Amino acid sequence: MADILLVDDDKNVRITLSAFLKKMDNNVDIATDGEQAEEKIKAFPYDLVITDLKMAKKSGLDVVRFAKECNPLTEIIVLTGFGTVESGVQAMKLGAYDYITKPPDLEEFKLLVYKALERKKLLTEVEYLQHELKDKYKFDNIIGSSKEMLDVLSLVSKVSPTDSTVLITGESGTGKELIARAVHLNSKRKNRAFVTINCGAIPENLQESELFGHVRGAFTGAIKEKRGLFQEASGGTLFLDEIGETAPATQVKLLRFLQDGEIRAVGDTEPIHVDVRLLAATNRNLEDAIEAGEFREDLYYRLNVIPINIPPLRERRDDIPLLVNHFLALAREKTGKQLETVSPQAMKILTGWKWQGNVRELENVIERAVILSNQNVILPHDLPMSMQSLDADAITTQAGWEELSLEEMEKRQILRTLEKYEWNQKKTSDVLGISTTTLWRKLKSYGIEPKMKE
Q: Are 164 and 305 in contact (CB under 8 A)?
């Protein structure tokens, strides 16, 4: 049950929407104008504020601004009249979750309220977790406020207190080890060892010895007994990065550990019981590896108790400005150079780049730019040459960098994607990372008439 403040100077709207919201099992408070809304917001931390845009004395934009100042986690939906879509967009820039035109379609309104409250719940949960772990566990090193990363962090907060095996998947450079560390540092094992190994970096004939240890004389060169990483991690967590690169014999021993908690050193006949939580990660599709006979299916299902997929950076572009500022601060500290910011033109390039190397590539690009820059701001020519030519027809002129609004860039990107996929709106929305409803609303606001496929 959520606490919602409904702000509108139209009595009929208040009666209709408040009754509808109450049927959705919410607590609903009413304000008849912007001034009364601000008094109520000051006195109580609402989960959601739904406000009309056009009101006397204080407008809906004033309410949005005031609500976000009082409580940044409060979500806001703005009710706009016909012809005031631009003001709705302005409200979103001030922090509103979304806008809907009046009179609202009640089913669309209901869905919008559910989504806003879901985001509020997720943000509150993540903020609590980050607050708890910020100083002690460095959870704040995981940067991201996009829906995709908030989902990941919410899942991390739920699985961390358990002893369940976690399989972390994602492309190279997405931050799989950071997620593994976050799981460990928020678990009951946080004060014990966190041991990591990159399975792909260990030759197959040495994997068993590294993980499980060996006894003296187990093989040529084994002149003394060796403890394996499972024993080193006893009581704590063992993180197996690139689990898909393990040898068949190693996979058999990992399966035995997951079944009964026992390992056996190379050359030994006696099993050893170890208390270790296992986390694994891979950038491979293990189901394809199973089909190819390179990975055991039974081991896959034992590992995949709790799957966590880290989305690639190109699917969470909203996080790029946050990551840029984070890496800029790290680069300043590392290099001693006092670069203050990134120019809008350079930021447009960064947010539009394909980022095949993901977050790791972005970090390297920012550090390089800081080193090469001769000013206190990163400019386009400080970025790699391949990036400087990005979409040159849209963002450059012969004289230099053109100041395009974000709205114009978005419109052009939507048009290019639609044309690329022959005006298939479902495919376009998937590529852009937005819902078909959001795409439809943007087409309408930009005056783009959808074309039917021939």
A: yes
